Amino acid sequence: MIVESSLNPKQATLRDTVLAGDYFMKVVKAGQTVRILDLEGNQAADTLFYNANDPAERYSAIDTIREQGNVYLTAGSKLLSDQGNVMLEIVADTCGRHDTVGGACATESNTVRYSIDKKCMHACRDSWLLAVAENDHFGLTKRDITHNINFFMNVPITEEGGLTFADGISGAGKYVEMKAHQDVIVLISNCPQLNNPCNAYNPTPIEVLVWE
C-alpha cells in the first residue's frame, strides 16, 4: 500500500548516508520515526531490529507474518518481536512491498547459490558481524544475527512455495518509514550483492533519516 509521508527531511535530527557494503547501527527511541531512503533505486537494505533495553528481544519474521497474515510488509504493517511485542510500525511507504522471508546474503550462501569463487565476495552477514564487533557496547554478538527484513527487495513466492529473486520494484527516491513503539537498535546492511538482481547488479547508497 502506497502511503506518502508528511515529514520534512530538512527537519530530521539525524541524516546518514550508508554506502553499498557499509552498515548503519544506531538506537531509535520510542516515538521517533526512522526512514530508509533508496537514493538511486533497486537497492536492498537488509535490516535487523533489537530492543535497545533488552537485546535478547528482537524482530521476529515468524510472529510478524503470522499476526498480519502476509509475507510482505508495507504501510500499516506492525513489526513484532519474538516476545509478541510491537517494535515498530510502518507508517509510510512509497515502494509498496518489502520482503521478510528471503534472508540475507552470506559468503556461504554465495558459494551455494552461485559458485565457489564467489565466497570471497562481501555480503550482508559480514556487514552485520563487523557492526556488532565495532559496537560492542550494544552487547550483541554473531549469535544474535537472526531474522531480517529486506527493505525494497523483490522476492516472489512461487506456486510451489519456493523463493525467487527478481528485479527490484523500488526506484530512486522511494522510501519506507517506521515509527518506533520501543527503543530499538536499528542495524542495516546496505546490500553489496552482485550476483542477483536485488539491486540491479549495481549496489548504490541509501540514506537513513530520523525525526523526533
From TrEMBL:
Positions of the DUF1989 domain: 17-185
Pfam family of the protein (one): DUF1989
Membrane-spanning intervals of the chain: none
InterPro entries registered for this protein in UniProt: DUF1989, UAAP2
Protein known as: DUF1989 domain-containing protein
